[in-house]
Request: fold
Amino acid sequence: MRRLIPTRSSPQPISVMTSNSMRASCRFRDLSPRFSLASFLLVSCTLACLSFSQAIANDRPNVVIVMADDLGYGDIGCYGAKGLETPNIDRMASEGCQFTSGYCSASTCTPTRYSFLTGSYAFRFPGTGIAPPNSPALIPAGTTTTASVLQEAGYKTAVIGKWHLGLGEKNEGPDWNGDLKPGPLEIGFDHCILLPTTNDRVPQVYVNNHNVENLDPADPLWVGNKKPSQDHPTGITHRDTLKMDWSHGHNSTIHNGISRIGFYTGGHAARFRDEDLSDRWVAESKRWISDHKEEPFFLFFASHDLHVPRVVNERFQGSTALGPRGDAIAELDWCVGELMKSLEENGLTEKTLLVFCSDNGPVLDDGYKDDANEKLGEHDPNGPYQGGKYTVYEGGTRTPFITRMPGTIPVGVSDELVCTIDFAASLAALVGQELPNDACLDSHNVLGALMNQSGASGREHLVQQDNGKVGNYGYRVGDWKLVRHDQKKSYNFDLSMTRKSVPQFALYNLESDPAEQNDLSQSEPQRAKQMQQELQQLLDAGRSR
Ligand code: NG6
Ligand code: CA
Reply:
């Protein structure tokens, strides 16, 4: 399937797609002259005194990946948002490539982030569903990751923002008052400033490399699953004091007038205000980009927007007609604008591959009464698709996905199938690193497609998962989509947490039926059977690379 979809922010979509199903491969001649084989050899010879990887790295683009949280396909202006504006992300798209089949691999946060970094489907690794507050590090120290591949190629690497992949040793979990490791620094990042879990999970503190920032040893931080004392205030006992009421869950320890998932005490000097998170991510990123402007770098900008509780900075409160959910999209858009400004100010715009994506599809009421439903108006968070966060329908994993690198990535719209799980193999190809055979088991090199190169193809197939409970999958091949629900139930058809019974298998044609309404498994029994078998083989094989 190859289509050109003109959008209002992509004034000149160009004909970069072909029907050639050739696998995308990284060859220097596919890229601009700046990254040609000749320039690579020239640079390598001239810099003979430097190590091989250093020489390559010196001629390599920076990579900045912005991952939004709970952002749906229809939530951005150039993807059809209504009642809110995203001028910065729209500009990024109009200067780069806007994907119509850009995916994350799972419809919840932790498994998508796990797959994004490890390049392996999270469902192969039990225990990689939504991580609780005291989760140990889910990615073992020393694992080959998107970050470690770039680090080995001579890149400086950082993650700034939401982590939600656990910290600390297996069976122990985070030592909140001591060294928080292993964590990002043990899997390829040189630097991290983190929201350790999610903003709705305790504790509300920043992690700066290996430590909780501003922690006063006289006021140690305790985090647990049980109420620490009878008189500990919670969202149940002190509900009338809350500045944002909860609707389900989220009724344990109160911080900043908002009750959360889990309990904690202490660490008062270290606690942040939700309103300041985005400003912090942006300030840290600007500083880090400027500090590393002379060397190749990889920044994973992991925004917490628009995860609940949606409490944006005061200057964005009420900035859209959609209530806090819309305001959080406006704040996210501002972040992208500031990052682009920072690249510009440092003269790095043309030298930086900037990516925008999401960790899972949309949800409206995800536990707080913030008018997400009531103020939705005409806006359609999952665009033309069905379902959202927690589902294996398209709305769960097909999201806004944009790449930009002026002068290298032709401006346009691409229908190629690309996924956040592919960054490991694609960026390894970009910097000339070999992936070990036993790593990044499902990451495919789709660099050509990410760079919108003429004739380059994306993935041939993709397995979509929900939160990792055995047996719910989407399997897309071309225009066809098999949906498998071993649980025979699905959440969130209407972007809420209602559940509905579904058949174990259903088959859809995404070209004629993007909303997955017409199950064709009876009229296409052969195809349905074949796709069921292929999916099972992909699950059983343990790898797809
Ligand atoms: C769920 C939470 C939801 C959100 C989600 C994780 C309840 C009732 N629901 O368990 O609010 O935190 O976990 O979201 O507690 S994610 O985007 O990080 O995967
Ligand atoms: Ca999420």
The pocket of calcium ion (ligand 2) is lined by residues 69-70, 109, 307, 359-360 (CB under 6 Å). The chain has a mean pLDDT of 90. The chain is about 20% helix and 15% strand.
